[in-house]
Structure formats: structure tokens, C-alpha cells
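Support request, please re-run this one:
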Amino acid sequence: MEVREIMPIVSAQAGLCPVPMVDIKTHEALDEYFRKTHAWRHTVRIPFAQPLPESMELPVPHGTRACAVFDVWVNGQEAEHINGDVSIPPSTMPLPWRCHLTQGWQFVNGRLETQPRFWPPFRPFLHGFFEAQVALTIKGRFPEIPDWIDPNEIAAGALGKIFALAGQPYANGDLALYFTDKFNEAIAEKRVEMLHAGRPGSLRMRAPEFGG
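Re-run finished. Output below.
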């Protein structure tokens, strides 16, 4: 699906709004939806040679960016998330002492920061792979978006933003509140669906998630 498939729904209900503004607000609504729901998931896999980089940009698909990181594995072993606003200091150990495993990670400013463990220098350099499950949001002017997106939900978010623009001929406080409420309800329903492992109403819950 493309953004231009959602824009006609918005333009039909906000006829006085120029198309460039419709484009901007539709993009903003999509970004907000993905950032708040974490519903667009992707797994990245990065091969590496020892040592593991202490800061890396995640190789997500073109037209997207990572907005949260959940689970992280190094060579199949789960790495521990470092809670809170705790900065990871740069390692002072020589490179040969660093192992390919991590003892902690954080997602900071769109990059994954890792803290390596240390081993004696006689350990051989090892090759391995790094995996992380991330939540995506859009990036750029012409992003591809998942087909499971409901265009009417995103259109409601865009309309809420358009009608809230004070001083414009199409400004309407009541409609802004109405469409914003509809958009927030759609976000809340999707968050509940993700929390209950894709089965709203189920007592089965996902494990705690981190990042974002």
C-alpha cells in the first residue's frame, strides 16, 4: 500500500485543504500510528566479526526507520536490556580483549548501543550474527506501508490534524476533536491487540517489551 491510496479519503472530507497539506498530515498520522502501536514488526540480522560494534544503525528496509527495539540476540543468546536513561560508557579495554557477546543494550536516538563482555586476549576472534526485533515507522516522501493498515483509521488521524489548524478556512474544532478521538481509539485497539498476542480479549499476554 502507498500513502497516495489514503489521501483521497482525506481530501474528500477536507475539500478546502490543499493537496500538499493533505500529504503532510497523512504522513504525520501514519508515523504517529506506527510509533504508538509498535504494530509494524521486522527482524534484522547482522553478521559480524569479533568484536561486536558498540554502536550500530539497524539495517531496516528502505523507506522505514526503527522506532523501538524489543528482543536482541547475539549468536542465539538473548542479550539483556539496560533499563532507564543509563548511558553505556565506551569500553576502555583493548579491542583484542572484547568478546562477540553482549551483556547489555539500549536503543538511543535511532541507534543500538551495546556493552560487550570481556575475555582474555588469547581467545580467538570469532564470527557471529546479531539479531533484533524492531518496530518500524515510515521515513521519506514515498514509503511503502503494510497492506494490513486500515486507510480509514489513518485518514481519521490526518483529518483530525487538518481540522485543528487554526486560522485556516477549513479549521473546525468539533471535527478535529471527533476525528482525533476516532484515531486515538484505533491506536488503543491496536495496542490492546498487540498486548494480547494478536487476540483481543484473550488472557494470554505478551512478554514485556523494551525500547522506543
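The chain is about 30% helix and 25% strand. Residues 3-38+146-195 form one domain.
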